[in-house]
Design brief:
The complex is a heterodimer of chains A (295) and B (525).
Chain A: H1 12-48, H2 68-73, H3 78-109, H4 115-126, H5 134-147, H6 156-164, H7 170-180, H8 184-192, H9 197-208, H10 210-225, H11 229-235, H12 243-251, H13 259-279, H14 281-290
Helix pairs in contact in A: 1-13, 3-6, 3-7, 3-10, 3-12, 5-11, 6-11, 8-9, 12-13
Chain B: H1 10-13, H2 16-47, H3 51-69, H4 74-101, H5 113-123, E1 125-127, E2 133-135, E3 137-141, E4 144-151, E5 154-159, E6 165-166, E7 171-173, E8 176-179, E9 184-185, H6 188-193, H7 195-200, E10 203-204, E11 213-216, E12 221-227, E13 230-232, E14 237-239, E15 245-249, E16 254-257, E17 262-263, H8 274-281, H9 283-317, H10 326-338, H11 341-351, H12 358-363, H13 375-403, H14 407-415, H15 420-448, H16 451-457, H17 477-487, H18 493-524
Antiparallel strand pairs in B: 1-12, 2-12, 3-4, 3-9, 4-5, 5-6, 7-8, 10-11, 11-12, 13-14, 14-15, 15-16, 16-17
Helix pairs in contact in B: 2-3, 3-4, 4-18, 8-9, 9-13, 9-15, 10-13, 11-16, 13-15, 14-15, 15-18, 17-18
Classes of the chains: A mainly alpha (295), B alpha+beta (525).
């Protein structure tokens, strides 16, 4: 499928045909694919600008343009949901990055009994999605409500704690692989100068690892932002919801789905994530392939 | 890898002594906070009789203090916080799921036996004839409400958990209690807002439940009521006034009589492997279960295949440096991946709406294809949406993997006279699979449990009629578990947990096989 490049000087129409056969069709494919990718996004943006409220009204794209829906959003629970999502995802991301990096440092730099077992254990734990245990999580948070109210059912703290349960997992592996590429000589040089293991960690390792930490932070943020099932089970009531659960309840109302309100909310909810993604794109690709591409 | 390392400047580290002093103070502050938090938790769990949590907190706190103040256990210093969260929120809940799977936990079997007995007694009660009506004062303490009456010259107070007992230091005027230490006298507005709790309140007259309890229907006067059922503790039976005897069936967790009628609630009992065998032996459950199982595998496999095919195709097509707008195209292709998946699923659901969706109305000129309601079409729709959602990821990783294949290998192929297709088949593709293999398996595992997509798009799909649980044609195992646990009318946590265990086992098996397979691929090369 990869056509080898042909360096050639040919006459006008001949070279044009060759270009078309070799490269031109690719641009057509790209345009079709772009239409395919963008269509739902254009649909959602156009619906959000359409002040009518139902699905019927959004049949044609961009017939009416008005920012009404966005204004109406602020009279609903939407701003609360946005704040909740933001809090939960940020705290989860920060906590995950710190704990995963610390764990990765321990596995990478120290030799202790149970190190191999620990790594294999993490590998095995990766295989079981946490959300499968949602019944047990529900019961656990019910029990915690009496002891630590902020970590109990319906509380954001409870949800954050559940998400942090996954910190020492796939993310640790990703960072571990990266830490292993940082030469030990740096550690040793620092130790000769009198640095403690903590100073090596914070001063050297963490600073050099900022790309992978950005990836882990981003993946963790995005993952918890869109997580639905645990958030629904833990948060229980509409005033406590995150964006994922709240927007779902809007869109899934069979009778009266506030469709254009939902579309406006969806656009606003998506903007931070899309922006983050586009900004950190090259780190993401590197991070995704880091685990598999050796060396 | 993408690192350019430069050694740190030595000058910074020579201030190590200062940093050390500051670091130690910080550690002290943090450990003080941790200990305060732990001790608060210990006292709180003691007060609420949560002995399991108490034991865990004591152990965890001791461990934390040892790890962070000892000179040894360095690795643990870094691992400990993550470990605590892992143990509580992953390992413990998985173990608890395994335990619950062997019980009949659910609606009607929610609690242990003793609370069930009390509940049975309380719900089958009637006013005892010829007893007095006591003027009563309603008290509140946090979330609890209680009753206070005046007998003789003493004030007796009780709540749902504590029987009536004399309280010293309480004041009353006539038969109205004005103040009770530790409680707040509730006013009319507060009583109104808590009337449901108040009507359900039963305050035991004494510690023997057979003495009856105090209840109120109007918030101002209370009467003594006793159960219609008489509980015999030694024989563990309930007897009605007519003499019908309900005996405890400890295997199922209910009180039942000879004529088959049962008392509610029952209690939670372990039922061994019954939840697991029920899925195979109960014919009404087995058929949907098998359907869902097959579809889950099919969905995961097809999702990976379709997204990989499209992603690979695009990666190969656009790996060509002669295509000038490559970076722009790449950014466009990644958009579906950047847009939050749960939102995309909901948007596609709207677009595929049979009557009003833009696809039927505008793109297909007014047709009425039942995308989400027809059993087969719904499955196709789910796959189509997952293709849109998933191909960018495959595109990204294939692009990365393609770029890491050394050019010399393909050039060697050209020199040996291999055509483009042959080169792809024998050189590029196998090398690609080595890098991308583990990610394909991870994608399979992810789609096997892709609850969000199914739930948002079809809610499980057109429901299978006649099944005892709310399950549909596009349900995958995990959405079926959710339906069984929360949405099928009768909540069946035990059955849901058993299903979870089965998914655990399947996913674990697949991942393990996958890991072995990828190691084999590496050995070949």
């Amino acid at each position: 499928m990869k056509s080898s490049s042909q360096a050639g000087t040919a006459t006008g129409p001949e070279s044009k045909r060759r270009w078309w056969k070799a490269v031109g069709w690719k641009h057509v494919v790209a345009l079709i694919m772009i239409a395919y990718c963008l269509f739902p996004l254009l649909f959602v943006i156009s619906t959000s600008l359409n002040p009518g409220s139902t699905l019927t009204g959004s049949r044609k794209l961009f017939t009416k343009i008005s920012p009404d829906n966005y204004g109406e959003l602020f009279a609903t629970d939407f701003p609360r949901w946005m704040m909740h999502s933001f809090i939960v995802s940020s705290v989860t991301a920060v906590g995950t990055v710190l704990m995963a990096a610390a764990g990765a440092y321990a596995f990478s730099r120290f030799r202790f009994k149970g190190r191999r077992g620990g790594l294999s254990g993490l590998l095995i734990a990766q295989m079981f999605p946490q959300m499968l245990a949602f019944v047990a999580i529900f019961l656990l948070l019910l029990g915690l409500r009496d002891v630590f109210p902020e970590l109990g059912i319906t509380k954001l703290g409870g949800l954050i704690a559940v998400y942090l349960g996954g910190a020492l997992g796939a993310n640790t592996f990703l960072i571990y692989g990266f830490f292993n590429t940082i030469p030990r000589e740096l550690d040793e040089a620092a130790k000769i100068d009198g640095a403690s293991h903590a100073q090596v960690f914070w001063g050297i390792i963490m600073r050099l690892a900022s790309p992978i930490l950005a990836v882990v932070g981003l993946l963790s943020f995005v993952g918890s932002y869109g997580e639905f099932i645990l958030a629904r089970i833990v948060l229980q009531r509409p005033e406590n919801y995150t964006l994922a659960v709240g927007l779902y309840t809007w869109a899934s109302d069979e009778r009266n789905a506030p469709w254009s309100l939902f579309a406006a909310g969806a656009v606003l909810a998506a903007i931070p994530i899309v922006a983050l993604f586009m900004y950190l794109q090259k780190y993401i690709v590197a991070g995704l392939t880091a685990g598999s591409v050796k060396g | 890898m993408n690192t350019k390392l430069s050694p740190p400047t030595p000058k910074r580290l020579s201030h190590a002594r200062d940093i050390a002093a500051r670091g130690y103070v910080l550690k002290l502050i943090l450990m003080a906070l941790v200990n305060a938090f732990g001790i608060y938790g210990i006292m709180s769990s003691w007060a609420h009789s949560s002995y399991g949590i108490l034991a865990f907190l004591v152990l965890a706190l001791f461990a934390a203090d040892y790890i962070y103040f000892s000179k040894r256990a360095i690795a643990l210093k870094y691992l400990y916080p993550g470990l605590i969260f892992l143990i509580v929120y992953q390992l413990y809940v998985m173990a608890n799921t395994a335990y619950v799977a062997f019980t009949n936990y659910g609606d009607g079997h929610n609690d242990a036996k003793a609370p069930a007995i009390e509940q049975i007694l309380k719900t089958a009660d009637r006013r005892v004839a010829e007893t007095e009506t006591y003027p009563v004062t309603i008290l509140g303490k946090g979330e609890t409400i209680g009753l206070a009456i005046v007998t003789g010259n003493e004030v007796k107070v009780g709540d749902g958990d504590t029987p009536l007992a004399v309280v010293h230091g309480a004041t009353h005027t006539g038969s109205k209690v004005t103040a009770v230490p530790g409680w707040q006298v509730l006013g009319l507005a507060q009583i109104q807002s808590r009337q449901n709790d108040l009507l359900a309140l039963r305050v035991n007259m004494s510690s023997d439940p057979n003495d009856g309890w105090l209840r109120t229907d109007n918030g101002t006067s209370a009467y003594v009521a006793k159960s219609l059922l008489k509980y015999d503790a030694t024989a563990d039976t309930f007897t009605t006034a007519e003499g019908l005897v309900y005996t405890a069936n400890n295997k199922v967790g209910v009180y039942e009589a000879a004529d088959g009628s049962r008392l509610t609630p029952g209690w939670r009992v372990t039922i061994g492997f019954e939840n697991f065998t029920k899925m195979i032996t109960d014919k009404r459950l087995a058929e949907p279960f098998l359907k869902v199982l097959i579809w889950t595998f099919a969905f995961a496999v097809l999702s990976v295949l379709t997204t990989f095919a499209l992603g690979l195709f695009l990666a190969v097509v656009f790996n060509d440096p002669r295509v000038r707008a490559r970076r722009f195209y790449r950014a466009m292709f990644v958009l579906p991946y950047a847009f939050p998946a749960f939102l995309s699923a909901l948007v596609w659901k709207g677009m595929f709406n049979k009557d009003f969706g833009i696809i039927n109305q505008t793109l297909l000129g007014g047709s009425a294809i039942n995308w989400l309601g027809d059993p087969t079409l719904a499955k196709v729709t789910v796959l189509l949406v997952n293709l849109w959602l998933g191909f960018p990821y495959m595109f990204l990783i294939c692009t990365g993997a393609l770029q890491s294949i050394p050019g010399e290998l393909t050039e060697a192929g050209v020199m040996d006279g291999a055509g483009p297709w042959r080169r792809f088949r024998s050189i590029t593709f196998p090398l690609l699979l080595v890098s991308v293999g583990p990610l394909l398996i991870a994608s399979f595992a992810f789609n096997f449990n892709n609850f969000s997509l199914i739930y948002m798009l079809t809610g499980g799909g057109p429901n299978i009629p006649g099944a005892p649980i709310l399950v549909g044609d596009t349900d995958i195992l995990i959405s079926m578990v959710y339906a069984v646990a929360f949405e099928s009318g009768v909540k069946q946590y035990g059955l849901a947990s058993a299903l979870s265990i089965i998914i655990f086992v399947l996913v674990g098996l697949i991942s393990w096989l996958g890991f072995r397979q990828t190691r084999k691929l590496e050995e070949i090369l």
